[in-house]
Write a structure and sequence with these properties.
The protein is an alpha/beta fold. It folds into 2 domains: 181 residues, 3-Layer(aba) Sandwich (Rossmann fold); 143 residues, Rossmann fold, CATH 3.40.50. It contains 14 helices and 13 strands. The strands form 2 sheets. The chain has a 7-stranded parallel beta sheet, with helices on both faces. A 6-stranded parallel beta sheet has the order 10-9-8-11-12-13, sandwiched between helices. Helix 3 crosses helix 4 and helix 4 packs parallel to helix 5. The mean pLDDT is 91.
């Protein structure tokens, strides 16, 4: 049974790697990684980190291309791939353009689609954009839905989907794998925090924060830097030129603000292990933070991961300067241990459950 895992971005690779590794252990299954190239630069190091390698590389990315151009290139390339290589099942993860188009191209060939991390919703089709539409679209054509949380499971059932399974989120599987690997082979981080001082890990890249929103976030970070003399802000700067220019202009050459290049996944896990708190607009990091006992300030107005907010692990602030400052002050004073937190996103067994379900549904008895 040929099972194609469509991977276009770093989060997809991280979350599908445990599924791929698990499927490889099942007799009669042939998982194949189809790398679209949507985030080519950010993918460096991911295959070696998880001991995986792409079986097909489509290389659709072009510098400065529009979302429509990317979508068109993906659809054409994946259509040809399906015609030439005839997968029996296509797995897509989350809500990227690669995931949506991967599902659509499979649908056009009447190939069953499995949706990993299904059922996340903000109920605002433009927030996040285009992810909210992408995951809803995948939901309409998927054959089987792998829900990461009870909330997502119930929502999919309410929408009328039948083949829905509660599995947990595979990112927890990935974290557990990587933490064990780092214990055996420690990584050197490209920054150092003096003994007795604290570190806040900061990431920002989403479209809704571009422009004035990003400037507001930077002003908040300037104030936080000025009022917390023992707190270092470590900010891996995203490759997007719109993000890089503003961040370097607003936050460059400041004491205790470390502007660094994108971290590899092992480095990111090591940084999360070292952090005192997290400031982010990333979806994946909201899921990873509870595994490290990290209070999280979410730089978004809406989140499809409200489980962390409801548990008090995360606080939604958008890009409002005062709200960011207040939330960081509160998170700075509270640093729970991971053992005190029940991770609402899974127990590290999601990939095993997904593989078992696939074997039950699609493999001959």
């Amino acid at each position: 049974m040929k099972i194609d895992l469509i991977i276009g971005t770093r989060p997809e690779a991280i979350k599908l790697a445990p599924v791929y590794r698990r499927l490889k252990t099942y007799p009669g299954m042939e998982p194949r990684i189809v790398f679209t190239g949507q985030h080519d630069e950010l993918m460096k190091g991911i295959p070696s980190a998880f001991d995986i390698s792409p079986d097909f590389q489509l290389e659709v990315m072009r510098k400065g291309q529009s979302l429509a151009a990317l979508t068109g290139r993906l659809l054409t390339a994946l259509d040809q791939h399906n015609q030439d290589n005839k997968p029996d099942l296509v797995l897509v993860q989350g809500d990227t353009t690669s995931a949506f188009v991967g599902g659509l191209a499979a649908y056009y060939h009447k190939i069953p689609v499995g949706h990993v991390e299904a059922g996340l919703r903000t109920e605002d089709i433009y927030a996040p954009f285009p992810e909210e539409f992408n995951r809803r679209g995948i939901g309409q054509l998927a054959t089987v839905h792998f829900a990461p949380t009870p909330r997502a499971f119930q929502l999919l059932k309410q929408e009328g989907h039948e083949e829905v399974h509660l599995t947990g989120n595979t990112v927890v599987d990935a974290i557990q794998f990587m933490r064990e690997k780092i214990l055996d082979s420690p990584v050197d981080l490209p920054f150092s925090i003096p003994p007795g001082q604290k570190m806040a890990l900061v990431t920002v890249h989403r479209r809704e924060n571009h422009g004035e929103g990003l400037k507001s976030i930077c002003k908040a970070l300037q104030t936080i830097n000025a009022t917390h003399s023992d707190l270092h802000l470590v900010l891996p700067v995203h490759l997007n030129p719109e993000v890089r220019e503003v961040i370097h202009q607003e936050l460059g050459n400041r004491e205790r603000i470390h502007l660094i290049e994108a971290l590899s996944y092992p480095e990111m896990v090591a940084a999360l292990d070292q952090a005192h708190l997290l400031i982010t607009d990333s979806g994946g990091l909201q899921e990873e933070a509870p595994a490290f006992g990290l209070p999280t300030v979410v730089l978004r107005e809406k989140s499809e991961r409200m489980e962390a907010v409801e548990q008090g692990i995360a606080t939604l602030v958008g890009n409002d300067e005062e709200k960011i400052i207040q939330a960081v002050d509160q998170a700075y004073r509270r640093n729970a241990s991971a053992s005190e937190m029940v991770n609402p996103f899974g127990d590290g067994l999601a990939s095993m459950r997904i593989a078992d379900i696939i074997a039950h549904l699609f493999m001959p008895a």
